[in-house]
Amino acid sequence: MNCMNRRIKIAIVLAFIIIVFIFLAIRLILPSQMDDVNPSRLCDERLLAKSSVLMVIPLLGNQSIAYNSSWCEHIKGLNKTIGMHGIYHTEDEFMHANNEESIRIGMEEFNRCFGFYPNIFEAPQLYLSEENEKILGEMNFTIIKLQSRMTHKTYHCTDYEKKSWLVKLNYLNDFI
Questions:
Q1: Is residue 37 within 8 Å of 68, Cβ to Cβ?
Q2: Which of 7, 25, 39, 161 meets the CB 3.0–4.6 Å disulfide criterion with 68?
């Protein structure tokens, strides 16, 4: 009986190690993403180059990305998939019901910057109400959800100094 318990414990530990290994391998293979991309944020160029998907905040602090044409050209010139990361990037902007018109405001600024409308959307802090998810779905957005964070590396631009916790998180993501 004691031998059986020991074998079960060893099997559980081995299963856990295998699952962790598979999880890490998936994160290495799948495309990475850079969140909080905006001209007023510090974005590590190395991580921008490494990321396949860039999630852009179109109106951070009510300042349109379209007013910085050299930045728009730089980001567009990276030849990455570019999506919309909220409108203003306030913590709760998609926790409560929005309407299609407010979403279109962000889409228009995005289009003025990049010359095309976004078809990928990620809510700030991934807080997305069912109502907003329905509206975005009806607008034909592909919605990035929390589950994506488990399998894809997600880096962040930051409005803090280079010693911020987000920068440290970026280095941790690089490690795993």
A1: no
A2: 39
